[in-house]
Design brief:
Layout lengths: L8 H45 L2 H35 L5 H10 L4 H37 L5 H42 L15
Helix pairs in contact: 1-2, 1-4, 2-4, 2-5, 3-5, 4-5
């Protein structure tokens, strides 16, 4: 007989996936923060601090910091991209209420709900790394400006271009995943109700 206090496997899997998702985003943010610190203290101080980083205590603190930063950057990215997300949503749902009802219908379809959760997970990673890419590009450029090495202008330009392309790619991926998620959810809602979700707001409805 199963213990009622233990989480069900799907809930445990979702919690684990969420932890990994936040950590993946947070590691990028922590890396950008470390690069910024290296740029600020300079090469001499950075070389003195390097031996202290090689310890299990610092590794544990870094993991905790990465998780916390992952939560923070996810909220910041969501706030920045909310206007675009709402615009994409109104292309398939006339109101916030229609969208909420479509989400509720997924409860009766576990397979579809799992696919929707996976899509949202990828979307959150893309929006987090959209900001991470810009932050890493900026901090990497600042760090390279503090250090002298061969072909620095060329490497600086290459890193900036790579960062810009990567940020653009993550934004495009986020937009594509978000639009596809709304479209599939609207189609699934239409199949379960037998009628299509109206594409335009009806009288009495309010846009989100």
């Amino acid at each position: 007989m199963s213990n009622p206090t233990q989480p069900e496997p799907p809930a445990l899997a979702a919690a684990t996936a969420m932890f990994v998702e936040v950590l993946v985003v947070g590691i990028g943010t922590l890396t950008a923060a470390v690069l910024l610190l290296i740029a600020l203290v300079g090469p001499v101080t950075a070389s003195k601090l390097a031996p202290a980083v090689d310890s299990s205590l610092v590794a544990g603190a870094a993991l905790a910091a990465a998780y916390a930063l992952g939560i923070l950057i996810d909220r910041v990215a969501d706030a920045i991209l909310t206007p675009q997300r709402r615009l994409l949503r109104t292309q398939h749902f006339p109101s916030q209420n229609a969208y909420a009802q479509a989400r509720l219908r997924l409860v009766d379809h576990p397979a579809q709900a799992a696919r929707a959760d996976y899509t949202r997970s990828r979307m959150r990673i893309c929006r987090g790394w959209f900001l991470n890419s810009m932050a890493l590009t900026l901090t990497a450029d600042l760090t390279m400006l503090r250090y002298s090495f061969a072909h620095r202008p060329l490497v600086l330009c290459a890193a900036t271009l790579l960062g810009a392309v990567t940020a653009f790619g993550f934004h495009r991926a986020w937009r594509s995943l978000t639009e596809t998620g709304y479209r599939k959810l609207a189609q699934q809602a239409a199949l379960t109700t037998g009628s299509a979700v109206p594409s335009q707001p009806q009288a009495g409805t309010t846009l989100p």
